[in-house]
Write a structure and sequence with these properties.
The complex is a heterodimer of chains A (about 190) and B (about 290). Chain A has one domain. Chain A is built from seven helices and three strands. In chain A, a hairpin with a 4-residue loop joins β2 and β3. In chain A, α1 runs antiparallel to α3 and α3 crosses α5. The longest helix of chain A is centred in the middle third of the chain and has 18 residues. Chain B is of the alpha/beta class and about 290 residues long. Chain B has one domain: Purple Acid Phosphatase, chain A, domain 2 (4-Layer Sandwich), CATH 3.60.21.10. Chain B contains five helices and 13 strands. Chain B is globular and about 45 Å long. The chains are: A mainly alpha (about 190), B alpha/beta (about 290). The interface between A and B is large, with 48 and 47 residues.
Chain lengths: ~190, ~290
């Protein structure tokens, strides 16, 4: 819990940059990690992580069956505890607006072409109909999330990750493989 | 399910007989005492017959060159990830190698489930990125699907802590330099990783993703290998450029490496046992790969 909170706090107050970042700083306007939109997002995410506290996480095993069974149990528990969850609960309107602004500025910025190329090289997934709590399909490849974009967004704890599915920007629980929330049409 | 298992078992048995009838390939690696010996495979987890043939070729090669571990460069399991599929795409083809004591150290490709990190035989210990040391070689296994600031900071610290006296080898799925026409070089990933590699003296980088074998001419003093054809293959994908030192896109392949002191010896081998590339890299200073 402490680690999760600490990571979220780092995300909120700004990320200490590795030297590679210092050598190659983003040229476009940086995101404000403490903007109201990102604050709302981080609060919503903290609530989500609290829900998960009672659910056992995965652990290393030689038995693939065990990984699948635990993942399914985790996903089921998440669906039960968030049965009334809807799109926009974590990516609130204010958060969505902030994410859209950052994504737009990265795509329109000096590294825009490179960012698009990164997504193309990751074998991008075509648009799909997403629903909250649905399973991230196991046969779909993972589109590379451009590092330039990740540098400008709130950092996430290890249980969740940003994903790109078609034009949608998605928050996925990567152990349960569950769609936690998404911003439709966020990517140009 | 039972039918799939039975068919897979029969296929494995058939290939086992076939593989032993193949002519043994020549080992060009020196096989010196005390060496760090390993292999690298990428984009292999299809479960198709050709993956099994490469695995059998590796096993045959292992008799003469007893490598102790394998770098799995991502796309370890394509398509379905059920226990039966994992068996078919990993456990059955590589079981003889694992029974011989060979360990696999995997990274995640874009076709992998992140939960593969919990699979004991991939030795990721639940981590998406991790490091380990074998002899005088530090290995840094990265998740190039998701190079967030946290991972980059971790990498910088690990590289700094590793000092300057040993080999430093990084591996991940997406190649920073590639003459493959399907994906090509991952320039944005290069922009964030290469400065760290240069700053902290990484000598060799392995990747997959492009379904071919390629050795790139040293870039800023770093040797880049792509081995993404250990199961998948994209014939004629290699468009030789100024980057290309050697390449092969006509058949499946795998790579073997021996490190002894300051010398790294490599030999890339095709599914049929042909040596498609080999040479020596000296650490640090000597930047010229020696052709066979």
């Amino acid at each position: 819990m402490f680690l999760r909170t600490a990571i979220l706090c780092i995300g909120l107050v700004g990320v200490p940059r590795a030297s590679v970042m210092a050598a190659d700083p983003p040229k476009s306007m940086p995101a404000s990690p403490s903007s109201p939109g990102f604050r709302e997002f981080s609060q919503g995410l903290q609530e989500y992580l609290k829900l998960q506290k009672a659910v056992p996480r995965l652990r290393t095993t030689k038995k693939r069956e065990e990984i699948v069974a635990r993942r399914q149990a985790l996903a089921q528990k998440i669906r039960e505890t968030r049965s009334d969850a809807k799109q926009g609960d974590i990516f609130t309107p204010a958060a969505s607006e902030e994410f859209r602004r950052v994504i737009r500025s990265v795509f329109q910025g000096p590294k825009g072409a490179s960012v698009r190329k990164t997504i193309r090289q990751g074998e991008p997934i075509q648009d799909r109909h997403l629903t909250i709590n649905s399973e991230y399909p196991e046969r779909l490849p993972v589109t590379t999330v451009p590092p330039t974009l990740l540098l400008r967004l709130p950092q996430l704890p290890p249980e969740v990750a940003y994903r790109i599915i078609g034009h949608d920007f998605v928050l996925e629980d990567i152990e349960a493989r569950v769609v936690v929330d998404f911003i439709p049409g966020a990517l140009p | 399910m039972r039918m799939i298992r039975r068919r897979t078992f029969l296929l494995a048995a058939l290939l086992n007989r076939f593989a032993w009838s193949l002519r043994a390939q020549d080992v060009t690696l020196p096989n010196k005492s005390g060496s760090v010996r390993f292999a690298a495979i990428g984009d292999m987890g299809t479960g198709e017959a050709v993956q099994y043939e490469v695995a059998q070729r590796m096993l045959r090669f292992h008799k003469d060159f007893p490598f102790t571990f394998v770098l799995a460069l991502g796309d370890n399991i394509y398509g379905g990830k059920s226990p039966a599929e994992l068996q078919k795409k990993f456990e059955i083809p590589y079981r003889p190698l694992m029974d011989a004591g060979v360990q696999f150290y995997a990274v995640l490709g874009n076709h992998d489930d992140t939960n593969e990190r919990f699979y004991k035989f991939f030795n990721m210990n639940g981590q998406q990125y991790y490091s380990y040391k074998k002899g005088n070689v530090h290995f840094f296994a990265l998740d190039s699907n998701y190079l967030d600031p946290k991972q980059l900071m971790w990498l910088e610290k690990e590289l700094a802590d590793a000092g300057t006296n040993d080999w430093k080898i990084c591996y991940f799925h997406h190649p920073l330099y590639s003459s493959g026409s399907f994906h090509g070089s991952s320039t944005e990933l290069r922009a964030v990783l290469e400065p760290l590699f240069v700053k902290y003296g990484v000598q060799v980088v392995f990747a997959g993703h492009e379904h071919l074998y390629e050795r790139v001419k040293p870039q800023k003093g770093i040797y880049y290998f792509t081995e993404g054809a250990s199961g998948q293959l994209r014939v004629n994908d290699l468009k030789k450029t100024d980057l290309t030192a050697a390449g092969f896109d006509k058949d499946r392949s795998f790579l073997t490496i021996e490190i002894n002191g300051d010398d790294l010896y490599f030999q890339a081998i095709s599914r049929t046992g042909m040596t498609i590339d080999s040479g020596t890299i000296r650490r640090p200073g000597a930047v010229q790969a020696v052709a066979p």
